Amino acid sequence: MADSDENKAKCYYDFSVLLRNCEKEIIEPIDGKITGEIPSWVRGSLLRNGPGRFKVGNSEYQHIFDGSALLHRFAIYDGQATYQCRFLSSNTYKKNQIANRIVVTEFATSAAPDPCRTIFDKFTSLFNPADNLTDNAVISIYPFGDEVYALTEVPLIFRIDPVTLETMERRNLIDTIVITHTAHPHLAPNGDVYNVGMHVIKGRLKILIVKFPYKEKGDMFESAEIVGTVTPRWFIHPCYMHSFGITDNYYILVEQPLGLSISKYVKCQITEDAYVSALKWYPEYDTHIILVSRTDGSVKRYRTPTIFFLHIINCFEKDDKLILDMCTYQDAKIIDAMFIDAIKFNHNNLDYAKWCASRPRRYRIPLEAPNMTMVESELLADVGCEMPRINYELFNGRPYNYFYGIISDVSSDIAGALVKVNVATGELSTWKEGNSYPSEPVFIRRPGAVDEDDGVVLSAVLWSDDENAIDLLILDARTFKELGRATFRTPSPAPKCLHGWFLSDSHITA
C-alpha cells in the first residue's frame, strides 16, 4: 500500500497497545487500588480471553488472531477487586514452548518447517485433524452449564477453572459434532447452549445448528443434537461466519461472500501454509441472510447488498418482520487490517482507516416475502463501532433500545472510546480518558432490575503511556458515567483482550 502524503490520515489510536507481550503470568491474584466506588451488588468474576504474546523464541506471529491465548480474571467482591492472568495450556502452546519456536500453523502464520515430518506424515494428518490443527482457543469464553470453556473457531475447546484460570481438559468436537463453529454461541434462558458449525453429512457439506441441552452438573456435549440444517450457497467455498442470531422462532445466519476454498484449506494442512490463504472475498456477490425456523426447520434466504460482518448486535421479531442489527463493513479488509505488519506500518494511511470503519446497520426482513427477496438496511448511528454487547440476560432476541461497544473509527479523536448507542434515536454516550484503551464493554444487570440499562458496564482498560497497568472500569450503564475503578500494577506488559463473560459468585461456587 502506498503511503503518499495525499493518502495519509490522522490516526488517534495508539496501535502499540494491540501488540504487547505478556512475559510473566500472574498466578496468584493481586489486589487493585480502588478509586470511586464499586457497587456492593457487583459480585463475581469478569473472565477475558485474547492474544497475550506474539512471539515464541525468535519467531513472531503475523496476525492478531494468532497470538497465544491469555486468560484474565477480575474478581469483584465487597467493593474490592483482584486480577490474575494465565496462558491457556493448549497443545499448540505447549508444543511451541518446548520447541521455542512456532511449530503449529495458525490462521495467518505458517509453522517453521519440521525436517522430521515427511510428506506422508503430512498427508495422514488430514485424517486426524484434531491432532494437527491449532487448538489456540484465543477468542472467547462461555459457560456450558456449570463448566466454563475457552473457544475459537476451530472446535477444539478447553475447559478452564474460573477461579485459578488453570486449563483443565480439552474437548474435541470435530469427530462427533462439527468441523468448524462460531466463537460466539448463544445461551438460552433455560441454560441450553446453541452454536452454528459445519460438517459433512452423507458426502455433502452442511451448515449445522447444534443444541447442547442444559445440565446442572457436568458434560453438556454428549447430548448434543442437530436442530437445524442448511445447504451452503457454495459447497466448495463455504462462507466465513463469526457469529449468528437467535429469536423465539428463528435462527439467523448471515452468509457473506468471504469464501473458504476447501481445496486450498486441505493443501494448507499438507504444506503448513497459513490458512488465511484459503480465504477469498467475492465482492460481485450479494450477502445472504438465512432464517431457519425453530419449529419445522424450514429455510428461507434473503439477499442484501454486499457487506462483511463479524458481530451481530441483536435481532428480534416485530409484527411481520424480523429485525437484524449488525456491525457491518463494506468489505473484508478488516481481516487484512489485523495483520501485525499492517498495524505497525499502515495505521496512518487513509485506506487503513476505511478498512476499520464499521457501521451499525438495521435490516428489516419481511417474514412473508418470497425467497431471495432483496432487503435494504438503515444506519442506526453514524459511528464506527465494534465489540457490541447488550443486556443479554433480558433482551437477547427481544426488542431493545441500547447496545454498548468500542468506537472503531481510528481517525476519530475519540478512537477506542466506549460508546452507548440508543438504537431508537441514534443518540450516543461515550467514555474516554486520555491514553486509555478500553476492552469490550460487558453489561451486568442490577439484581431485580427490569429497565434495560439498569446496571453497570465493566471494561478492562489499558493505557498507552503505561504498559504495566490495567484497570477494571465500572460505569453506570444508564448515565454512562464512571462509578469507580480498580487499578492493577502488572509485572510485565498488559495485553489487550478480545471477548469475555461475567460469572456471578453463585455460578462459581455452585
Quick structural summary:
This protein has about 500 residues and is mainly beta. Helix content is about 10%, strand content about 40%.
Q: Can you offer a commentary on this structure?
A:
This protein has nine helices and 37 strands. By secondary structure, it is mainly β. The chain has one domain: Methylamine Dehydrogenase, Chain H (7 Propeller). A hairpin with a 2-residue loop joins strand 4 and strand 5. The protein is globular. One of its GO terms (molecular function) is carotenoid dioxygenase activity. It comes from Leptosia nina. Keywords: Iron, Metal-binding, Oxidoreductase.
Give the secondary structure arrangement, pairings included.
Blueprint: E1 26-31, E2 33-36, E3 44-53, E4 55-56, E5 59-60, E6 68-77, E7 80-87, H1 91-99, H2 119-124, H3 129-132, E8 140-144, E9 147-151, E10 156-160, E11 167-172, E12 180-181, E13 186-187, E14 193-201, E15 204-212, E16 225-230, E17 245-246, E18 250-255, E19 258-260, H4 262-271, E20 279-281, E21 287-293, E22 299-304, E23 308-318, E24 321-329, H5 333-337, H6 340-345, H7 350-355, E25 359-366, E26 373-374, E27 377-379, E28 385-389, H8 392-395, E29 402-407, E30 418-422, E31 428-431, E32 436-438, E33 442-445, E34 455-463, E35 466-476, E36 482-489, E37 499-504, H9 505-509
GO biological process, one term: retinal metabolic process
Cofactor: Fe(2+)
Protein name: Carotenoid isomerooxygenase
